[in-house]
Amino acid sequence: MRDAAPQTIRLADYTPYPFRIDHVALEFRLAPVATRVIATLKITPLSSGADMRLDGEDLRLIRATVDGRWLDLTPDATGLTVPAAELPDGPFTWECEVQITPAENTALEGLYMSKGMYCTQCEAEGFRKITFYPDRPDVMAPFDVRILGNEDGSTPVLLSNGNPDGHGRWTDPWPKPAYLFALVAGQLVAVEDSFTTASGREVALKIWVRPGDEGKCAYAMDALKRSMRWDETEYGREYDLDIFQIVAVDDFNMGAMENKGLNIFNSKYVLASPETATDRDYELIEGIIAHEYFHNWTGNRITCRDWFQLCLKEGLTVFRDQQFSGDMRSHAVKRIDDVLMLRARQFREDAGPLAHPVRPEEYIEINNFYTATVYEKGAEVIGMLRTLIGPEAYRKGCDLYFERHDGEACTIEDWIAVFEEATGEDLAQFRLWYAQAGTPTLDVAEAWSDGTYTLTLRQDLPETPGQSDKSPQVIPVTTGLLGRDGAELVPSQTLVLREQTQSFRFEGLPERPVPSLLRGFSAPVRLRHGISRADRLLLLAHDTDPFNRWEAGRSLAKDTLITMITETTAPAEAFLDAVMTVAQDPSLDPAFRALALALPSEDDLAQTLHSGGVTPDPDAIYAARKSLTRAIATHGAEAFGQLYDAMAVPGPYTPDAKAAGQRALRGTALRLLSEIDEGARAKAQFLGADNMTEQLSAFSALLSIGKGTNAVSTFYEQWSGDRLVMDKWFALQISLAAPDKAVRACKALTAHPDFDWKNPNRFRSTLGALAMNTAGFHTASGEGYELLADWLIRLDPLNPQTAARMSSAFDSWTRYDEKRQRLIKIELERIAATPGLSRDVTEMVGRILAA
Ligand code: BES
Ligand code: ZN
Question: Which of 229, 561, 712, 752 is most buried per CB count within 10 Å?
Answer without folding.
Answer: 561
